[in-house]
Write a structure and sequence with these properties.
Helices cover 13% and strands 45% of the residues. The chain is mostly beta strands.
């Protein structure tokens, strides 16, 4: 096993309070879909003031939360978002606070768009105008993907209105793109779901657990869906290419469609990245 995979790191920051010295459990689910990625964090025995901070000052001012996990030399942020709710209750001898949050939650719920355009307007320009309606989310890799590759023009005038996320999703899917929100920024990908980042090598030495589980190839696409598990890898996000090496059966490159990072800051307990993958 690599020397990089020792000494767990679990850091939760909520409303500018670093919850580093409390027992906690986490589950972060990240996908290629436009709906917010989610985090569920269970923290034990927070003092009164921190339990109150988790709630936020009002319904409109929900607390911001981030999760940084991994190992001492490879830890990284796996979630940043807005608290949905954070109830606390006494369980046995402990105060238990359960924080549930969504990445880009405020903009996903609140951003609205009403746009019109005339014949000949470039599609990417309309996407850019939709991006301008978001108060908090960043354009991410829009310039390197949609803006650089989508040159089509509208053959006639048109209009779009409604929830900005749903409107943009409908528009870009019509031209072969998809998007998701990753750590407060938009990530645009083509139909394969592959992002622009360097492939992550997974082998038994770098944390791979067991073998790749792969289904039958889809007759239309020629692609096969599968699953793979590793010790926690914060650098793996939806759209990442993983290069599986050193196994006795299935090897090669796969595109991550969904990843669930889960664990706690205990010892000899689960600390995993569970991935749903697609053959490249």
């Amino acid at each position: 096993m690599s020397e990089l995979l020792f000494e767990r790191v679990v850091k939760v920051n909520i409303a500018d309070n670093l919850l580093e010295d409390y027992d906690c459990e986490f589950e972060v689910v990240r996908t290629l879909e436009p709906e917010p990625n989610t985090a569920k964090i269970k923290v034990y025995n927070l003092p009164d003031e921190l339990r109150a901070a988790c709630q936020g000052s009002s319904e409109k001012e929900k607390a911001a939360v981030s999760v940084t996990v991994g190992y001492k030399r490879t830890a990284g942020q796996v979630f940043v978002g807005d608290v949905r709710y954070a109830p606390s209750a006494v369980v046995g001898a402990d105060w238990v606070t359960i924080i549930e949050a969504g990445d880009g939650e405020k903009d996903y719920k609140n951003a609205q768009v009403a746009l019109t355009w005339s014949k000949g307007k470039q599609v990417s320009k309309v996407v850019e105008e939709i991006l301008d309606t978001f108060d908090n989310l960043l354009p991410g890799d829009f310039a390197k993907t949609v803006k650089a590759k989508l040159k089509e023009q509208f053959p006639r005038g048109g209009a779009l209105s409604g929830n900005a996320v749903r409107v943009m999703d409908e528009l870009v899917r019509g031209y072969g793109f998809r998007f998701s929100v990753q750590d407060g920024s938009f990530q645009f990908v083509d139909a394969t779901g592959q992002n622009q980042k360097t492939a992550v090598v997974l082998s038994p030495d770098s944390g791979l657990i067991g073998e790749v589980e792969l289904g039958e190839k889809d007759k239309k696409t020629g692609k096969a869906k599968g699953k793979v598990k590793s010790l926690l890898q914060p650098s793996i996000i939806p759209g990442s290419v993983i290069d599986v090496q050193g196994t006795s059966t299935i090897k090669g490159q796969f595109i991550v469609q969904k990843v669930t990072h889960e664990g706690n800051n205990g010892f000899n307990t689960p600390f995993y990245s569970n991935m749903e993958i697609l053959t490249k």
